Amino acid sequence: MNEARFRQVIGQSPAYWGGAALLALLVLAGVMAAHRMEELGHIITGMDNQVAWGLPHVFAVFLIVAASGSLNVASVASVFSRVEYKPLARLSGLLAIALLVGGLAILVLDLGRPDRIGVAMTHYNFRSIFAWNILLYTGFLSITALYLWVQMEARLNGYTRSVGTAAFLWRLILTTGTGSIFGFLVARDAWDAAIMAPLFIAMSLSFGQAIFILVLMAACRWTGRPLGDALLQRLKNLLGILAAAVLYFLMAFHLTKLYEAKYHAVEHFLLASGRPYGLLFWFGAVFLGGVLPLALFYLPALRASRRAIVAGALAIIAGGLALVYVIIIGGQAYPLTIFPGWKVSSSFADGVVNAYAPSLPEWVLAAGGTALALLIVLLAVRLLRFLPESLADDPADSGARH
Amino acid sequence: MTEPEGSRQPDAGRRRFLTGAAMSTLLLAPGVSLITYAAGRGATAGASSRVRWGLLIDANKCTDSCNACVTACSTTNGWKNLGRPTDPQWIRKVSLTDPESGITRSVPMLCQHCAEPPCVDVCPTGASFKRADGIVLVDRHICIGCRYCMLACPYKARSFVHEDVTDQEPNSPRGKGTVESCNLCAPRIDAGGIPACVEACARDGYGAMMFGDLNDPNSALRRQLAKYPAAQLRADLQLDPGVRYQGL
Amino acid sequence: MRDRLLIFAGLVVLVGLLTWPSWQGLLAREAASAPTPAVREGLTHCIRDTAWMRRHHMELLMHTRDDVVYRGIRDPNETIPGCMNCHLTRLADGSYPTVSSPQFFCNSCHSYAGVKTDCFSCHSNRPDPAAAGGAAQSVRVTAVASRETP
To answer: Are C70 and C62 within 8 A, CB to CB?
Structure first.
C-alpha cells in the first residue's frame, strides 16, 4: 500500500481568499457582539433570570461536542488500526482542535465577566464538573496538538498509536464531562440523568463525523484531489450507525423518564406541548438527525449518491443543533417544581413556562464562533500538510483490513 | 577561569553569610508588614462554625397581600424588580393553591442556604461558597458570570445582574456581570443584627419569619421547630436547607 | 549581509517606539509629580501612614476583602464605605464626585498612574450614611428586633 503523501493546499484563488475574508468578517462581527454584551450587559440578549443559558451555549456545546467526535476517524485509524483511515487522521485532528476553539470562544465571550478568564484559569473548585471541563478542554487541545505533531514529524511516527490512544480516552472522558454538566443537576426535571453522558458521547460521534465528512468532501472537491467512493462509503456507513446510536440513546432516555409518573409533565412539555421544543425534537432531532439520514444513507436507490451523503450530513448537523437546543433551552423553559402538588405563581416566573427568543447579538456571537472554527481549518490546510494528496481507492486493498 | 580554592576561602564564607542574611531579610520583610494587616479595633468576631443560621417561616401567618419582606430586602440591599425578566429578585412572595381543595397559601421564597448547596458544588471558580456559619454566598470578586449556579439551584434563588448598576447601597456592593442572591443580610448579622426581611415582618405585625441559630438547642428558633413539624422545600433532594417552613 | 543595516535600523526604530513613554517623560521640561489627593478637613491621620498606604493599599484591600467575604470579620473603619467617610470630599455644589471625575479620591492618583480601578463597578462610592466620621458602626442595627423575638 502506498504511504499517503500530504500536501498543502495552494490557496491562492479568489474563492479561497474570498472565503477566508468572509469568515474573518464573521469572526470580527462575533467579537464586536461580545464586546457590546460586555459593555452594556446581558440585557441586550434574550437570556434572563429564567433562561440563563441561551443560543450561544447551544452553539458552544454543539461545537465542543462535535469537536470531540470529529477525532473519531483519527482514533479509528490509530487506535483500532484501520489503515484505510490513516490518511484522514491529520485532518480529523485539525478539525477537532478548530471546532473546540470555536466553541470555547463562544463560551468565554458570553461570560458575564470575560475579563476574569484569568481568575477562571487560576481558581478551581474541583467539585465542579464545569471546572473539570475547563481542564479537559484545554488538555484536549494540548493532547490533540501533540497527536498531530507525532504524525507530522516522521521521526515521531512511532508514538502515533500511544498518543492516539491517549487522545481517544481523553475525549471519552471529556464528552462524558460535557454530558454531566447537565446530567449532574438535580434541580431540573429535564436533566438529572446518568444516561446524558453516553447520550452526549453518541451525539459527539454523530455530529463530529458528519462535519468531518462535509469538510473532507468540500476540501477534496475544491482542491481537485480525488476522493474514492469506497472510502466515502465506509465513512458514510459509519455515520449512519452513529446517527442510529443517538436515536437509541434518546429513546432510552425519554422512555425511562416517561415511565416515571414524576416526569410525565416535563416529558409532555418537551415532546409535545412545548413550543418550539416538541417540533424541534421530533422534526429536528429525530427526523433530521436520525430518520432522514438513515434513509439517505441506506436506501438502495441513494446508496451511491454523493449528494445524498452531503444532504444526510447536513441534516444530522441541523438535527444536532435542534437536539442541543431542546436539551439546554427546553430544560430551562420548564418551570422548577419547588412545591410539588401545589399550583404556584409569583413575581419571579414560578409555575409558568419561561419564554426565550434568541437576540441578534447571540446569533452573531454564535456565527462568529462557528466561523472561527472554519477559518482555522481553512488557514491551517494552507500552512501545513493536513490534506492528503489523493484519497482515491487503491484497488489492491479496498475492503481489506490490516 | 579557575581560581585557587584556598585563597578564596574567607571571602566565600563571608559571601555566603551575607547572601543568607539578605535572603532571610527578604523573606522576613513581608512577614513584618503582614503583622500590620491584622484587623484593627472595632472588628467583628467573624463567622463561626459553632453557629448555623436558619430561618423559620410560618405560612399560617403570612398573607398574600403583604410584601414587606421583599420591600425591606430590596431597600436594604439596593436591588429593584420592576417586572422585567432580567430584574433580580433576592426574595419573592409565592402564592400557592392546592388544586384539590382550593386552599391558598402565601410564603416568601429566598435562598434556602442549604447545608449541601448544589450551587456551591457547581461553581467552577469557587465563588459560590458556604460560610462557616452556614450562609451561602457569592464572592463577586471571583465570580466570572457563567450562570451555571443559576441552572443548578432548585429554588431559582440566584439572579444575574444584566446591566450596569449605579447608586449601590454602601453595604451591598453589586455590579454587572456577576450572580447574586440572598446573603441572609450577612453584614447585619455579623454586626449582631437580624435580616431585614425578618425585621420588617415583625415590625408590620405578622411575625411570620423567625431568625436564629439552628445549632443552639435553646434558641427560640429551635424551640419553635420542636413545637410543630416544619417542612423543607424539596426535601427529597436532601439538601438540608437552613430555611424551614411551617404550615404548608 | 546587506540587510544587516536595515535590520538594525528597524530594531532601533522599534525599540524607540516601544520606549517612547519613557523618552517623553525625560524630555518633558517640567517634572510631573504625583498629585496629592484631597481629604476631608480636620482629619489628622489615616488608618495607616501615608507612605505605607501608597505602596500597600491594594494588599490591605485584598486582605480585608477576604476577611469580610469569607470570614465575616468586619471592621467598619476598613470597609470601602469607611474609606469614603474620610476620603470623599463634597464638590462646590454639595454633591459627591462621580467615580470618573478627577476630584474623586482614588481617581486622582490612579488616572496619573494609568491603573484602572474595577472596584466601583460594584462598590458604592458614597460614604455610609449610618456612620459618622469613620469611628461609628457602619451597619445600622435596629434596637427593636432581637434574635430571641418569637
So the answer is: no
Q: Which of B183, B76, B93 shows the shortest CA–CA distance to B135?
A: B183
List pLDDT tens digits, range A305-330: 999 999 999 999 999 999 999 999 99
- Whether the pLDDT of residue C136 is over 60: the answer is no
Pairwise CA distance, residues A78 & B148, whole Å? 36
Contacts of A124 in chain B (CB under 8 A): 124-126
Q: Among all chains, which residue has been given the C-alpha cell 445524498?
A: A308
The pLDDT tens digits for B88-138 are 999 999 999 999 999 999 999 999 999 999 999 999 999 999 999 999 999
Residue B232 pairs with which residues in a beta bridge? none
Q: How far apart are CA A36 and CA A39, in angstroms?
A: 5
DSSP state of C79: S
Whole-model pTM?
A: 0.89
**Between helices A89-109 and A55-70, what is the axis angle to 10°?**
160
Any B CB within 8 A of C134 CB: no
Q: In the predicted model, what is the mean pLDDT of residues A58-74?
A: 97
> Is residue B107 within 8 Å of B69, Cβ to Cβ?
no
CB contact under 8 A, A120 and B125: yes
pLDDT of residue C50: 83
ipTM comes to 0.92
**Is residue B47 within 8 Å of residue B191, measured between CB atoms?**
no
CA dist., res. B161 & res. B175, Å (int): 7
Residue for grid cell 462554625: B49
The candidate with the shortest Cα–Cα distance to A288, out of A311, A243, A309, A318, is A318
What lies within 8 Å, CB to CB, of C147 at 6+ separation is: B194, B211, B212, B213, B219, B220
B174 touches chain C (CB under 8 A): yes
CA distance linking residue C90 with residue A191, whole number of Å: 55
Which residues on adjacent β-strands are paired with residue B137? B129
> DSSP assignment of C12-26, as one string?
HHHHHHHTHHHHHHH
Domain borders along chain A are 14-383
Contacts of B190 in chain C (CB under 8 A): 72-74, 139
For chain C, the domains span 43-137
Report the residue from B43, B137, B170 with minimal CB separation from C75: B43
Read off φ and ψ for residue A377, nearest 5 degrees: -65, -45
* Best mutation target, B32, B34, B37, B203, to test chain C (most C CBs within 10 A): B37
CA distance B100 to B116: 33
Helix or strand or coil: residue A361? helix
Q: Is C90 helix (H, G, I), strand (E, B) or coil?
A: coil
Burial of A14 (0-12, 13-18, 19+ CB in 10 A): exposed
Cell of C98: 462621580
Neighbour-count burial of A179, counting CB atoms closer than 10 A to its CB (0-12 exposed, 13-18 middle, 19+ buried): buried
Q: Which domains does chain B have, with CATH numbers?
A: 53-115+164-171+180-246 (3.30.70.20)
pLDDT tens column, B65-77: 999 999 999 999 9
A89-109 and A160-183 helices, crossing angle to 10° = 30
**How far apart, in whole angstroms, are the C-alpha atoms of residue C38 and residue C105?**
7
CATH fit for domain A14-383, picks 3.30.470.30, 3.30.260.10, 1.10.10.60, 1.20.1630.10: 1.20.1630.10
The C-alpha atoms of residue A71 and residue A68 are separated, in whole angstroms, by 6
